[in-house]
């Protein structure tokens, strides 16, 4: 739908968004971080599609409500941990 988009970043990360919130980051090493916080029915459908089709080593993250400055920062932090 119109709420979903994806892009490949210059560092090789494939980032999937729902609206402007990161739902998943797939790293070049085939590891992935998936946001499983609840947002809306539309976002939940996208999250289920992502979970069904990812064939990488997956780390699930509850990004919402974390002490970091925003959900996207939580996702990026977790991806950096997996990338190293």
Summarize the structure.
The protein is of the alpha+beta class and 84 residues long. 31% of the residues lie in helices and 31% in strands. It has helices spanning 41-53, 71-83, and strands spanning 4-8, 14-18, 21-26, 31-35, 57-61.
Characterise this structure.
Helices cover 31% and strands 31% of the residues. The protein has 84 residues and is an alpha+beta fold. Strands 1-2-3-4-5 form a five-stranded mixed β-sheet, sandwiched between helices. A hairpin with a 4-residue loop joins strand 3 and strand 4. It is globular and about 35 Å long.
**Averaged pLDDT:** 85
Largest sheet: 5 strands, mixed
Radius of gyration: 12 Å
Distance between the termini: 33 Å
Strand order of the largest sheet: 1-2-3-4-5
Care to count the β-strands? 5
Structural class estimated from helices and strands: alpha+beta
The parts where pLDDT drops under 50 for at least 5 residues are: none
**SS strand fraction:** 25-35%
Query: Helical content, roughly?
Result: 25-40%
Give the SSE string. EEEEHEH
Bulk shape: globular
Counting DSSP H or I runs of 4 or more residues, the number of helices is 2
